[in-house]
Amino acid sequence: QVQLVESGGGLVQAGGSLRLSCAASGRAFISYAMGWFRQAPGKEREFVAAINYSGAITSYADSVKGRFTISRDNAKNTVYLLMNSLKPDDTAVYYCAASSYGMEAVTRESEYAYWGQGTQVTVSS
Q1: CA–CA distance, 46 with 108 (Å, rounded to integer)
Q2: How far apart, in whole angstroms, are the C-alpha atoms of residue 96 and residue 84?
Q3: Which phi and psi (to 5°) does residue 48 adopt?
Q4: Edge-to-edge strands, sheet with 18-26
């Protein structure tokens, strides 16, 4: 079992930055791939970014590539999402998730077994 708690969301103007954090508790954080997903009002949840167990492999959705950076600190059991050059279209609830497919930067939502409660990010124009 892994418990995940996101933080760092808020209201920011377009062009601004935010850093989301996801603190994990439970067993063997280092063995899990970690991902960030988001869900905007009226839309399905979508993949944003993922990182493998060591941090050596990352993957990004095309819509955030070059603007967002995922990283992890295994000593602190925490994964981060640094979001730069934010746009109103980035407004969503952002979710952290953990996958037992630790060797990969997992992009498929179905392969994530553990989810946080989400944190709201609102980007004003």
Answers
A1: 9
A2: 18
A3: -115, -55
A4: 2-7, 18-26, 78-83, 68-73
For residues 32 and 102, what is the distance between their CA atoms, to the nearest angstrom? 4
32-55 b/e with 16+ CB inside 10 Å = b? bbbbbbbeeeeeebebbbbbbbeb
Residues 31 and 20: their CA atoms lie apart, in Å, by 21
Handedness of CA 54, 59, 63, 65 (dihedral sign): positive
Is 19 in contact with 83 (CB distance < 8 Å)? yes
Nearest partner of 1 among 31, 22, 23, 26, judged by Cα: 26
Token pair of 28 as six digits: 């063997």
Q: What is the pLDDT of residues 24-46, one digit of tens each?
A: 997 789 999 999 999 999 999 99
3 state DSSP class of 20: strand
Cross-strand pairs, 23: 5, 78
pLDDT tens sequence across 60-93: 999 999 999 999 999 999 999 999 999 999 999 9
